[in-house]
From TrEMBL:
Protein name, entry field: DUF3732 domain-containing protein
Alphabetized InterPro entries for the sequence: DUF3732
Coiled coil: 200-227, 293-330, 391-425
Swiss-Prot/TrEMBL keywords: Coiled coil
Native organism: Streptomyces althioticus subsp. attaecolombicae
Length: 658
């Protein structure tokens, strides 16, 4: 069971100043009043106390005269009191809260008895637990390479409708217009609707981590393979050492270990210049490197041509085998007219089994063709795997040639740079010292990776674990469950839309969690909420959707607070500068009362498991509205969220909070 809001408390900046606004749980609560009396601050105060990462309370009397905020949360047999100071001057937000477990019915404590020592993250975890959220579950974030641990902050997407959201055609859920929030909402909806099985979610997260580990391992192994053969830079430095007289010329290609050993020998030994003339056939090292690169390019071209020929042969074999199998099926159907097993001459009728001598030649020809096709298919069947194996070998050889070509280019670049640097040195000794410096730099950076511990190739084990998890998850029906749940919720949205007499309510209505909107499937095509005219439609579909979702949460124990807060739904029927008079008349009044009737009917049907809090400008005389008003904050009765006696100086109306 999750919680509802039992009270909102504000503490003034002067000693002893406390103001509590109580709410009835399991009921419709209406706070009505004039503009700038603090009504809209109720939603932002609740948001702030429920571990918001920012300070959503708007500038005005509330910010100026309130030093701390608190909410009392209640569920059967339990009560949680959460208080949070207003930010200190110069700070964006207060990062510590006071969280107290209380006996049910305990009033808010005085400010001086509160200890603000619970870090924000810890408070968020406590609130998530109190809401019934399983914090061990992680769900994938949509379009982001990470997972989400659902929390109280995510649950509030379905509990708040601020003044600029309650009839917004483009935003269906709270905070949907903020960066990254749409993808987060898409990611957590399956969990809060109950479509996510915790065990399956854990397996999905494990599968994601294993796939990530496999990707990282393959990258490390690829890097190790690149460093396996002597890199182009190492070979170029070896060539420079020979050219500078630090090493004798070698006729054989050194291995990676030999290259590193020779480079260390050059670095560790004293400068001993080779005076023996190098063979004439050694030639210019740059020319030799360019020649090796040309040979590698030709080898790459030949390898590509062989692979293309082999793939073409495999394709031709497959085509021929297909045609041959089809021809064999046709001939086999004619084999009903078979030779007599006794005489091997006369064919037998497949119906009466009487001999038909005239068919001997035809049947024999058919049987010969079948034997020939069987032989051809057997030969092709044995050839194709061999060809495919040869393709794999050639592709592996091509990868090796490409790696060698890359190293060759590195060698050419390094030799070119080295030759340019050596040409600037005045004598051979300084050239040799320059080469040693370059070798030292190389050994200090790249070579240590070559000689370091080898990466353990555990790909087989990781792939085995991934395959096992994929097999376990193959029967997971999360997507099917989500589709089914959304279909049922959409039916309830349509029922409420019809009761509100909204446009398109006679067509199928669906909640689209990908676009985070409501869609009517009409004969002329889908119509999204943003394309539906009239603010009354926008308000109506918001109310119908949120009530239907909370009905689902209540009936299926979804870990979402059983509170829906609506900020001024009557704005659709009142002008922006409405001050309370005159009351709406005729159709507008009827439609507004209909909204409250739908809200109250849902609350009554859920029998105490849903609380709706509405803040309003309007103050209607109809009992449907009047009987649920818990506070009236008007200039005429001098009532507001912030008591008048707390205010010590006038505030410009433009700066006052709603």
């Amino acid at each position: 069971m999750t919680f509802q809001i039992q009270a909102v408390t504000v503490y003034g900046k002067q000693p002893g100043q406390v103001r509590t606004v109580p709410f009835r749980t399991g009921s419709l609560n209406i706070v009505t009043g004039d503009s700038r009396r603090g009504k809209s601050a109720l939603l932002t105060i609740i948001d702030y106390c429920l571990a918001s990462s920012d300070y959503p309370v708007k500038a005005g009397k509330v910010r100026k005269y309130v030093g701390a905020y608190a909410v009392t949360l209640a569920k059967p047999g339990q009560q949680l009191f959460v208080a949070r100071r207003a930010p200190e001057p110069g700070n964006a937000v207060s990062t510590v809260l006071c969280v107290l477990s209380q006996a049910p019915g305990t009033p808010p404590p005085p400010l001086e008895e509160l200890t603000f020592a619970t870090p924000l993250d810890t408070a968020k975890d406590i609130l998530s637990d109190f809401c019934g959220i399983d914090r061990t579950v992680k769900v994938p974030a949509v379009a982001r390479a990470q997972t989400i641990a659902p929390s109280i902050r995510h649950a509030l997407y379905f509990c708040f409708q601020a003044q600029n959201e309650v009839a917004n055609p483009d935003l269906l859920f709270h905070s949907q217009g903020e960066e990254w929030r749409p993808n987060t909402i898409r990611g957590v909806i399956p969990y809060f609707l109950g479509a996510v099985d915790p065990e399956q979610a854990a397996l999905r997260n494990r599968l994601r981590l294993l796939r990530r580990d496999l990707s990282v391992l393959e990258a490390k192994l690829a890097q190790a393979r690149d460093l396996g053969p002597a890199s182009g830079q190492a070979r170029a430095l070896l060539t420079e050492a020979v050219e500078a007289g630090l090493l004798p010329h070698r006729d054989t290609e050194p291995t990676v270990e030999e290259v590193l050993g020779l480079l260390r020998f050059v670095l560790e030994g004293s400068i001993r210049l080779e005076t023996e003339p190098r063979p004439d056939n050694n030639g210019d090292p740059l020319t030799a490197a360019i020649g090796r690169r040309a040979q590698l390019r030709r080898a790459v071209g030949r390898s590509r041509a062989r692979i293309a020929d082999l793939k073409r042969a495999v394709e031709e074999n497959d085509d021929f085998a297909g045609e041959a199998r089809e021809q064999r099926r046709r001939l086999a159907s004619l084999g009903l007219m078979r030779l007599s097993p006794d005489t091997s001459q006369a064919a037998q009728c497949p119906v009466c089994e009487s001999p038909i001598a005239s068919a001997n030649t035809t049947v024999a020809t058919i049987m010969q063709d079948l034997e020939r096709l069987d032989g051809d298919l057997q030969v092709i069947g044995s050839d194709t795997p061999a060809l495919q194996h040869q393709v794999a070998l050639e592709e592996e050889q091509l990868q090796q040639l490409r790696a060698a070509l890359s190293r060759s280019q590195d060698e050419i670049n390094e030799i070119s740079a080295g030759l340019r640097a050596l040409q600037q040195e005045p004598d051979q000794v300084q050239r040799a010292a320059h080469v040693r410096g370059r070798i030292s730099l190389y050994l200090d950076t790249t070579a240590q990776h070559v000689s370091g511990p080898q990466v353990e190739d555990s790909r087989d084990d990781l792939q085995r674990q991934i395959s096992e998890l994929e097999e376990l998850l193959s029967d997971d029906t999360q997507d099917d469950r989500l589709t089914s749940y959304l279909s049922l919720i959409s039916q309830n949205i349509r029922t409420r839309a019809a009761a509100l007499e909204l446009d398109h309510s006679n067509a199928p209505i669906r909640l689209d969690v990908n676009r985070l909107t409501v869609v009517a499937d009409t004969a002329d095509g889908p119509v999204r909420l943003a394309d539906m005219g009239s603010a009354e439609n926008h308000l109506g579909y918001h109310v119908a959707t949120l009530l239907s979702l909370h009905e689902w949460f209540s009936e299926h124990r979804g870990p979402v607070p059983r509170t829906l807060i609506l900020d001024q739904p009557s704005q659709v029927y009142f002008p922006p500068d409405y001050t309370g008079e005159p009351m709406p008349q005729g159709t507008d009044l009827s439609h507004l009362l209909n909204v409250y009737r739908i809200i109250n009917d849902t609350v009554q049907a859920l029998d105490g498991t849903l609380q709706v809090i509405v803040v309003e400008h309007a103050d209607l005389a109809d009992p449907l509205f009047r009987d649920h008003v818990i506070e009236r904050w008007r200039y005429s009765n001098n009532q507001a969220l912030v008591p008048p006696e707390w205010i010590t100086e006038p505030i410009d109306d433009e700066d006052e909070d709603e």
